[in-house]
Design goal:
Elements lengths: L8 H6 L8 E4 L6 H9 L5 E5 L15 E4 L6 H7 L5 E7 L4 H5 L25 H7 L2 H10 L6 H14 L5 H7 L9 H17 L1 H15 E11 L2 H13 L18 E7 L3 H6 L7 E7 L1
Parallel strand pairs: 1-2, 1-4, 2-3, 4-5
Antiparallel strand pairs: 5-7, 6-7
């Protein structure tokens, strides 16, 4: 199964500072690129657990006694590691967002390039699909999603147009949605605006930001003191959550100070790494990537 090269592969794995006999978790297995690199650096006593909610990723399972692949969303990381008797780990890696494979497979409905059913579910057993959101959500809720998750200023007008169009005929495919919104898609900005619309719907379908928050809170609890968290994000909504949590242990607001003006934070100040011009040239997906590496205090 075709998966593109993982972004910031060596930088993200280097950031884990792997201990040969340590326990590590790759919460976004995908094509297995990051997991293979971690296994190369682990000794015979080391252990790697990987998570992926997409059943396509299961076909990439690595045949290695030190490796366990769990078919679940990473928002359940603590519960499933506990099932294997794991309470603490040395490092966790997350490569967020949609994989190139998911974008390139027309039937999944993630891409604006194909006329496919509006699906966008990362886990096929999830009940809520993009089609449900587009056809069933209220105009107000659609507007909120497009504004918050797509960062679209004209979100209310877009929502109004979707509701008006679906009254004439249900919107079942990506090209039907595109046609319904055509007047909001000037030629020079069509791709960018559509990408923002699709991003907003996809985030809602998969509850991506809620899952990320739950994961970060559990990562804090699971990591040993001195353990490493290595997170790659691809858009500002994800990166903002990661940055804020690593800095203050909160997703919004500022941490409370004690009597002496000190704050209690979960991680040592995180390090930001972006792809080189060479990597971006060879892998277009890398252009918006940001890697943050933090150490558990």
């Amino acid at each position: 199964m075709s998966y593109h090269n993982p972004v910031l592969l060596f930088e993200s794995v280097d950031g884990l500072e792997i201990v040969p006999n340590g326990i590590y978790v790759d919460v976004t297995f995908g094509g297995g690129g990051h997991s293979k690199e971690i296994l190369k650096r682990l000794g015979p006593e080391g252990k790697l657990f990987a998570f992926d909610q997409d059943e396509d990723a299961l076909q990439n399972k690595i045949d290695d006694d030190r490796f366990v692949l769990i078919h679940e969303n990473f928002r359940h990381i603590k519960r499933f590691l506990r099932f294997y008797g794991i309470k603490k780990v040395n490092g966790i890696l997350a490569d967020l967002g949609v994989s190139s494979h998911q974008f390139d497979k027309a039937s999944r409905g993630f891409s604006t390039r194909f006329d496919a059913a509006l699906d966008m579910r990362m886990h096929r057993e999830t009940k809520k699909s993009a089609r449900h959101i587009v056809n069933k959500y209220s105009e107000e809720r659609l507007g909120e999603i497009l504004f918050l998750y797509g960062e679209l200023r004209n979100a209310k007008a877009l929502a109004r147009q979707i509701v008006s169009s679906r009254k004439q005929e249900p919107i079942h495919t990506s090209f039907q949605l595109k046609a319904a919104l055509q007047k909001f898609l000037p030629k020079n900005k069509e791709h960018k605006i559509l990408a923002q619309i699709f991003q907003a719907i996809r985030i809602e379908v998969n509850e991506e930001l809620e899952s990320l928050k739950e994961f970060l809170l559990q990562a804090d609890e699971l990591l040993e003191q001195g353990g490493k968290l290595s997170v790659i994000s691809y858009h500002s909504l994800e990166d903002r959550l990661v940055k804020r949590y690593l800095r203050s242990g909160l997703f919004e607001g500022e941490p409370e100070k004690d009597f002496y003006g000190n704050v209690s934070v979960p991680f040592k100040k995180s390090k930001l790494i972006v792809p080189s011009a060479e990597e971006i040239k060879g892998n277009n997906r890398a252009r918006s990537a940001k890697l943050r590496i933090a150490t558990k205090l």
